[in-house]
Design goal:
The chain has 748 residues and is mainly β. It folds into two domains: 99 residues, Immunoglobulin-like, CATH 2.60.40.1120; 506 residues, Beta Barrel (Maltoporin, Chain A). The chain contains seven helices and 39 strands. About 5% of the residues have low confidence.
Length: 748
């Protein structure tokens, strides 16, 4: 199967190129008839585009025959989209409507690449610049600002996404267009991704097994890499962030160029943070380091484009256990993890007259080492004093430590889709997806045995267009085989479907209703684990008799979009059969309580409500309010663990622009997490708390180049609090105190 896919990729690269077309036009303001320079023109399915010049004119070359969606966007105007049929002999004259609403972006995580207003499925999207302007230390922390998304954290450097109460393997992560497989079943390490070289993040909330297969039962976090430079241009940038709380920094530099049909990107970043600080103490061994390198090569003709991307991410993560040594060193103490993640990805598209093929191939190599506290010297008089602990970091650098736990996970995955010719109102996609994965142990400990996992899935989905209504439906079959070395073999299969409806009642009111099923096969940790886990302080025992998790979710969304106000109400009900969870059995091994994996039916329900108000004529003023809630229960009405508390976010934001300070903004935000008393049997109640944040930023010209600066303050009152999803909560360790961050970006 693998060889057939690669031969197909080579074959399409040499197929004859069809007719090449050029599209020319002018973009103006519909009210003033003034031309609009620097407007973006983009053909999402072709991944080609450009910008208007000083006279509002644009020219896009080498476009294939057929019908293609064209999208035009610029800040301060409504996003324009239309279907362009090529060849086209007309010169386009397009007028845009002024608008205070932020311009829309292309949604890439759904199969038809539409604007959100055209999508049947609700997708949340955030630009990476917006996330960084909140002062987030890591990518995991930044996604907390997305409605319905939270993070299970172990300190600052380790975080895992939670979508509407579901996490770990129930949330699938996509990076560079391929599914990320870096032992996401491990609760004690994070994404293994840097925000450097990331364009935007999209979140599908709810079962997405139709599009992505197993592990998308709870949703998808889709991370879009930065785009290539426009044709025949080049650019570079330098970026630096400093955080007062951890006395830490992250810095990255990138360069991209596009020459005729060849495109290149290079980007590198370095991050270091000391232990984070609360009002009373620094949290010992919450320190971490990260290095990241990304490269991309693209080739594009009128009917064919392909790209290859590579990402190397290495991180050293301290695992906090108790409050001890107080310093600002950045070398992790014991216990710690050393994680190395390689992502190789290839994406190719071939465009025929009225149809297209797409092939995404990925290879992920993940190496995970854990180093534990152990003494192998003849120091009979060694004492546990803080003074000697402070020398431990220097001592560790000199020792050749052997990893107690060392696992390598190697994953090959592929995703082949065929966009059929459009038949009347029907757009249809059929696809084949699969994965082959091996887990191998090299350390003295073995929490999860050597094993091989193989997936294959077939899917078909259609989008049906009407005047004021759109339908989307689809079906999928999946099979997963897990072979455990010197153990057992398990075979899991599932058939799933989805149905969605989007109805526009008028220009202002839209309703979306989605019904979807999803599934998740048990992961290796749940089936086979046997041992104590650093960072979770428990001894876990797997259960080889676990069944598939199977769910069905109903999701309803109502949106009101007026010229100066947007309101949304999202509600969901998620029924999960054979939900897998950990429960203590009362035993203790190696001083850790024993937890075993059990199954029971569960249900989760809740939703999000949001209001965005920008009154006329004060279009520069934005008042945003959101409320998020989720409740999770087992069939016996007991509560599920690690369910986020209800949250209220109130933000006042102003935007300003003048001759020397462009795209300026300032904001004040009040975040309130309400009391969480809907807890499982082994959790404790989490009190409510409120945090105040503020920030200001904008860009200006320095030596004829753009420099962007921002200052952000989080937890300004230095409040002592513990988030309900913090892994350090059982030890009574606070979350981060006051943190002031400074950010700078300079475009070369």
């Amino acid at each position: 199967m693998k060889s057939n896919i690669f031969w197909l990729l080579l074959l399409v690269a040499y197929l004859p190129i069809q007719s090449q077309n050029t599209v020319k036009g002018t973009i103006t303001n519909i009210d003033t008839h003034e031309v609009l320079p620097f407007a973006n023109i983009y053909f999402p399915t072709l991944e080609k585009g450009g910008i208007t010049n000083e006279n509002g004119e644009f020219t896009i070359y080498d476009l294939p025959n057929g019908s293609h969606k064209m999208i035009i966007s610029i800040i301060g105007f409504e996003t324009y989209d239309a279907i362009i049929t090529l060849p086209l002999n007309d010169y386009l004259k397009i007028a845009l409507f002024p608008s205070a609403i932020e311009m829309e972006e292309i949604i890439l995580s759904t199969p038809f690449h539409k604007l959100q207003r055209d999508n049947v499925m609700k997708v949340e999207q955030k630009n990476i610049g917006d996330l960084k302007s909140t002062g987030a230390v890591t990518l995991s922390e930044g996604i907390n600002t997305i409605s319905g998304v939270e993070t299970i954290s172990t300190g600052v450097g380790i975080g895992k996404p939670v979508i509407r109460g579901l996490s770990s393997n129930r949330v699938l992560v996509y990076a560079q267009g391929v599914r990320l497989e870096n032992q996401q079943f491990g609760e004690e390490h994070g994404l293994g991704l840097s925000d450097a070289g990331v364009e935007s993040i999209e979140v599908i909330k709810g079962p997405a097994s139709l599009l992505y297969g197993s592990d998308a039962l709870g949703g998808v976090l889709y991370i879009n890499p930065e785009k290539f430079a426009p044709a025949n241009t080049k650019s570079g940038d330098l970026n630096f962030n400093y955080f007062t709380n951890t006395q830490g920094y992250n810095t990255n530099a990138g360069y991209k160029t596009s020459i005729d049909n060849i495109k290149l990107i290079f980007r590198g970043s370095i991050t270091e943070h000391a232990d984070y600080k609360t009002e009373d103490y620094r949290v010992t061994n919450s320190r971490f380091k990260e290095q990241d390198f990304k490269a991309a090569l693209g080739y594009q003709e009128s009917n064919f484009n392909t790209e290859f991307r590579y990402n190397l991410n290495t991180s050293q993560l301290g695992i906090p256990e108790e409050i001890g040594v107080q310093n600002t060193n950045t070398n992790p103490l014991l216990p710690n993890q050393n994680i190395q993640n390689h992502i190789f990805s290839s994406k190719s598209k071939l465009f025929l007259e009225n149809s297209s093929f797409e092939l995404n191939v990925g290879y992920i190599y993940n190496s995970r080492k854990e180093f534990e506290e152990h003494h192998h010297h003849d120091d009979d008089d060694h004492e546990e004093e803080e003074e000697e602990e402070e020398h431990e970091e220097e001592h560790e650098d000199e020792e050749d430590l052997e990893a107690a736990l060392h696992m390598k996970l190697k994953t090959f995955n592929y995703d082949f889709k065929y966009n059929l010719p459009k038949l009347g109102r029907f757009e249809t996609i059929v696809g084949l997806q699969g994965m082959s994965q091996t887990n191998t142990n090299y350390g003295e400990e073995e929490l999860i045995p050597d094993a091989t996992t193989n997936d294959v899935g077939l899917l078909a989905t259609s989008h049906i267009h009407f005047e004021t209504m759109d339908l989307q439906l689809g079906a999928r079959y999946d099979n997963r085989i897990i072979d455990v070395e010197n153990g057992f073999s398990k075979n899991y299969s599932s058939f799933n479907g989805a149905f969605g409806l989007k109805k526009d009642f008028n220009d202002e009111v839209t309703t979306r209703v989605n019904l979807a099923s999803g599934f998740r096969a048990p992961n290796l940790a749940e089936l086979t684990s046997e041992g104590s886990h650093e960072g979770t302080n428990r001894y876990e025992i797997g259960n080889s008799n676990l069944n598939n998790e199977q769910n069905f979710q109903v999701d309803v969304a109502i949106e009101y979009n007026a010229p100066h106000m947007e309101l949304f109400v999202n509600g969901f009900y998620n029924k999960v059969n054979d939900y897998i969870f950990l429960s203590p059995n009362g035993d203790v091994i190696d001083d850790d309580p024993v937890f075993v994996y059990l199954q029971n039916d569960a249900k989760l329900f809740g939703g999000e409500v949001g209001l965005h108000f920008h009154p006329h004529p004060l279009d520069w003023l934005h008042i945003e309010n959101t409320f998020e809630t989720v409740t999770g229960k087992l069939e016996d009405d007991s509560y599920l663990p690690l369910i986020p508390a209800n949250k209220i976010t109130n933000t006042v934001r102003v935007e300003f622009d003048n001759n020397w300070f462009k795209k300026g903004y300032a904001f004040v935000k009040l975040l309130t997490n309400l009391k969480q008393n809907n807890i499982s049997d082994f959790e404790t109640v989490t009190p409510s708390y409120s945090l105040i944040s503020t920030g200001i930023g904008g860009e200006f010209n320095v030596f004829n180049n753009i420099m962007w600066l921002s200052i952000t303050g989080n937890n300004l009152t230095n409040k002592k609090y513990i988030n309900h999803l913090s892994r350090l909560k059982p030890d009574g360790i606070y979350n981060m105190g006051r943190n002031i961050s400074f950010a700078m970006s300079y475009k070369l």
